[in-house]
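Bumping with the actual sequence this time:
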Amino acid sequence: MAAVASAVTIAVMAMPEASFSASIDGLRVWWEVVFPALLPFFILCDVLMGLGVVHYIGALLEPLMRPLFDVPGVGAFAFAMGLASGYPIGARITARLRREGMCSRVEAERLVSFTNTADPLFMVGAVAVGMFRMPSLGPILAASHYVSAIIIGLGLKYYAYRSRETRLPEAGRPHEPILSKAAHELYTARHQDGRSLGQVFGDAVRDSVSTLLLIGGCIMLFSVVVKVLDVAGITRLASALTQWIMSPLGMHEAVTPSLMNGVFEITMGSEIASKAAAPLTQRAVAASAIIAWSGLSVFAQVAAMLHGTDVSMKPYLFARMAHAGLAGLVTKGLLLMFPSVLSAAAVVEGVFPHQPGFLWSVARSTASVAMTMGILGIAAAVRVVLRPASARPTRTQP
């Protein structure tokens, strides 16, 4: 690791112009896209946890999340927020849940492995429309990404199932009505937190901005590393090796550079895949796999989010590999089921006549938070209404 870090440092010093240009590109992406998109999510998530709302949702959705994924009900909050906002909000919420003792180590490793997903706007707007110029491809990419993430979550139910710390003891009385239990969890969490609303909001803003600065540093660093590797010709050598490995699978050689760049950075890999001189099916499969893999830049962000906890990155690494393979397979299957997507010849021009501004991105992100909380509330209400009569507490005679 010391040798690699030294080599990268020397390469950056040897190519200052390319490094500076790549750093500026990474900074622009962070400020114009990442910062306004994630800041409302980060702030409101911290506020909701400080007010006990997440504990309330967790108690309501425990009967849903436990049999499906063997995680606590608060995992539904991490999953929903991860689906709506994208990388790395799922990892940040999971780390917060673990620090506050709302899930065990094994449960946190399961959660971070399938709740840290890409957001739909990136897949539909940026990749399908902006890169491939095919709006009809957006639902295919999104469906394959989320379906494979759910499959990963269902499979992780059996990860470390014999571990003694797989499940935390259930809070509250075992036969307490679910609404009463949820209200009790909210009150207890709010009482234990003890901060005023102003302090909760101030801490949320400060911690969120600090986290986003860390994410920005990761984006800029990996933007420079990818550029340096490309200028030095290392990317081409790695692409040749990847092509030799992938050729038995029938992968077109023009798609290989996108996979190689996608190992490091999701946006660059997806864009190269969209422009490759290869059949559309292979380009879409490659882009889907790259989105599911997420890139080493997101890996660094997730590692930073989990710093200070006992959550291991190993399950996350294997889950990302499995997610990439599953997403590619599901994408290919969906394209075979819906061949009309391949024959769509409409070239989209001028869909986004101008780059959305900072305030527009903040407003869209805030609206997504509100919509996600509404969906969670509806799911919790439906779960309570449809609860089997046999599961409701019965009054016994003394």
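The tokens above came from a reply further down the thread. The chain has a mean pLDDT of 83.
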